Fold:
Amino acid sequence: MNIRKATKKDIKSIDEIYSNGSMIECKLQFPEISISKLKGDLKKYKSSRSKRYLKEMNSRKYYYVVAEEEDKIVGFGQAEIKNKDVGVLELIYVDKKFTKKGIGLKLLKELEKWLKLKKVKFIESGFYYNNSPSAALHKKAGYKPIRIKMRKKVN
Structure:
């Protein structure tokens, strides 16, 4: 398995993994939303996501990495410099056929290396409350909860 910096040619694979992972994540957190609605929303915003990935890949504030297994991209991660003291692990997604193999942890560690090179003092990350695989990954990597964010829908 190889972890490397992502390039423009990886965007299609990154978005495919993101879309599939988002479907799973959203079904955990928002079971009342139909699969067809989720698929429709993901399709609707595909072009804008691809443009955002490219813009961020060309920015010094962001860093994208991919995990390859036999020349196939099976996961990706993205980190961002929020300010001089704080870096954020924004996205870590692994193709569901390749989970439970340590790929997420390898992606996380590679993103941490980049953030340390940028001399941040803290690394933060967030994920949906019901995403127990992400919680386990972060705990394994030494992250501790610092706050809970809550939301209420108003009509």
Notes: The chain has one domain: 2-140. The mean pLDDT is 93. The helical segments are 11-29, 35-44, 46-57, 103-117, 132-140. DSSP finds five helices and five strands in the chain.
